[in-house]
């Protein structure tokens, strides 16, 4: 269920069908467990209203809650190393979204993503929510998704390991002090069709995992590692609220 920043929401996010099911609003709680301030970005699909006006700052240990109506789809991510002026203009080392505090698009790779499609609302064939943590566009901070109060499988999704520490040299993004602040995807780094699942590699049968996506998958088994990593990376739950934790240390 990954979202392609350059190509819009993937078919798994948007392939939902008409139904009369009704589901109450889902509540997202975004929690900053990092030891530093982050600037979460939000993006809504289908021209929906951006939660939290698209972006805001979140201090260490702080949290914020948003409600999303049935049928909502979108993503959350963390921006790091940001500087903004009094008008909200500025930029971030990772996850930047148009050089503004209130994002007007998706986060620039490499960036870890939490992605959702909330069921019901007359546009889903069931009341199931779909969610995932995606490293398809690379990694900047760990993210975990924990459903609360829902029914169904409702499994934890996320990436607890710090992939910046494990990042291969050819994928590293470093700051001015030489500190690794993000880990690029092989697609972003090498642009090849075999890494990006494009061209002659644009189907599940022709786009296999690579040594780089396998490294991501080994570190974070319940996160998307490449475009066709659906079977072990897309999760469902019904009638749930969601805790989205940045820099999680546990699945519970």
Q: Would you kindly provide a written description of the structure presented here, covering whatever features stand out?
A:
With 252 residues, the chain is mainly beta. The chain is built from 5 helices and 16 strands. It has helices spanning 11-14, 163-166, 186-190, 193-196, 211-219; strands at 3-4, 8-9, 26-32, 39-44, 63-68, 73-79, 83-84, 90-91, 113-117, 128-134, 143-148, 157-159, 172-174, 180-183, 235-238, 241-246. The strands form 5 sheets. The protein has a 5-stranded mixed sheet with strand order 5-3-16-11-12, with no helix packed on it. Strand 1 (3-4) and strand 2 form a beta hairpin. It starts with a strand and ends in a 6-residue tail after the last strand.
Rounded to the nearest angstrom, the distance between the terminal CA atoms is 23 Å
Number of strands: 16
The residue-averaged pLDDT reads 88
Structural class call reads mainly beta
Helix fraction bin: 10-25%
Number of helices: 5
Rounded Rg: 17 Å
Poorly predicted residue ranges: 1-23
Biggest sheet features = 5 strands, mixed
- Sequence of strands across the biggest β-sheet: 5-3-16-11-12
**Secondary-structure element sequence?**
EEHEEEEEEEEEEHEEHHHEE
Family: Belongs to the thaumatin family.
Keywords: Disulfide bond, Signal
Disulfide bonds: 34-247, 82-92, 97-103, 154-237, 159-220, 167-183, 187-196, 197-207
InterPro entries: Osmotin/thaumatin-like_sf (IPR037176), Thaumatin (IPR001938)
